[in-house]
Write a structure and sequence with these properties.
The structure is a single chain. The chain has two helices and no strands. It is mainly α. It has one domain. The longest helix is centred in the middle third of the chain and has 41 residues. It starts with 23 loop residues before the first helix and ends with a helix.
Length: 85
């Protein structure tokens, strides 16, 4: 008699990736995502002034060492604004 074939067991729940959560689970997931987003906003609010200060210091050094002109810095800022739009 041939041996029986073993069917592999699936661990965990069998939920497709595209399936949405329902009820309280969806709300708690949204709350967690909102909390993570708020944490990121707070971190950016803390870091952004420091980054701006460092950029200003670099611009000051570039001007002081005469590696570029004020007009070069203005045109560089304008270029960045155009790229952001």
């Amino acid at each position: 008699m041939p041996p029986k074939r073993k069917v592999p067991r699936q661990s965990g729940r069998n939920r497709s990736a595209g399936q949405k959560r329902k009820g309280a689970a969806a709300k708690s997931g949204e709350a967690g995502m909102t909390r993570r987003l708020q944490d990121l906003v707070e971190r950016i609010d803390v870091v952004l002034p420091e980054v701006a200060a460092r950029v200003a210091a670099l611009e000051h050094l570039l001007l002081e060492l005469k590696l570029c002109t004020q007009e070069d810095l203005r045109s560089a800022r304008e270029f960045v604004r155009i790229q952001e739009a």
